[in-house]
Amino acid sequence: MSLRRSARLLSNSMATISTEKVVNGALKGTAEKKPTKASKTSTTASSKRKRPASTVPNQATNTEREKTSEKAAEQNELEFAVPTTPTAKRRRNQSAKALANPPPTTPAPSGARLMTSETPVPLPDNVRLKARPAEPHATNAPLSTPGGSRVVAYSSSPVKHSDDVSPTKKTKEANKVVPVGPPLGMPAPTSTTETLLKDACAHLVKVDPKLKVLIDKHHCKMFSPEGLMESVDPFMALASGIIGQQVSGAAAASIKNKFISLFPSAPAFPAPSIVAATSLETLRTAGLSQRKAEYIQGLAEKFASEELSARMLVSASDEEVMEKLIAVRGLGRWSVEMFACFSLKRMDIFSTGDLGVQRGMAAYMGKDVSKLKGKGGKWKYMSEQDMVDISARFSPYRSLFMWYMWRVEDVDISVMQGN
Fold it and tell me: What are the Basic and acidic residues biased-composition ranges (predicted)?
């Protein structure tokens, strides 16, 4: 009887074996449930026989406990890790793209930069010392031709409008400066290349005296006597502008260099007739897209056929230049405005679609630009009509007024001046 009672007590004590469970990174003891009546009798009968071998399960239990503790520690570290706010995939992509391609201050500054020659061809010494007549609505820059001559609106004295020159005379004009006359109906010039910038600044200050501080602080080299002596190749300027569309300045310069290297016999930039005769596949090897290759080839064909020429760009009015060039595939209004201002050196060009000019004019009129920055739409800084009305007071020197509107907000326009 005592033997049965001892066995019953022993089985009851073994029924509550403690195990360890991890709760919130801490170890706590929990008791397992007692076995059912069916298992009690088998445990009582075999408890004494299995007792000597009980050390093996104990070792296994200790090993399991150690593994459980390690897992609990790892889980505890995960649970108590410092939380971080995940970045949305779309936001990450936008941030990376913004860092790689910072937004330009103008619609396409790289294209405008390539419209001006970084190594302009100087005029001959015997011409450089002579001031030429200059007029705000005329092309005041000498334009080079494929034959090597340079076309200007005026010689050292005003000239009448000239007709097309014969091929024989064109050959004789190589490496010479050829005056072809200003646009028809244009009044006689009252300035020269030496005084044009001075006269323009005086007009701006007369309209608004507060601009004098800005003018004294920033010298506009583009319309200075030195700037007006720099010769410009119109085909190179326009083709380079197409190359620079929608790419960074570094990428545009690289593509332009590769494009020039396709024509090793060309002295500086290939002539329009050579480019027009080159296949699109060859042009694309410079890194041009299919569409840009087509644009440049089409532009070359217009210059080769003389539908576009240095003579036309000198003798045409502002409206005619805009009309002729916008008709060319690949050239938009902004590109033509930048070409007329920075390459042709025309003094009465004003671009209402330029974001830098909008922002500068808003600041010039006393608006809080920082508050307007968050607004949407194309005309978030100032309406187009307001820009037209305000700039009209500074005609016929709106190009210079536009240049100083970039300076109001310290917009970096060195890319458009080739500096």
Answer: 63-74, 160-175
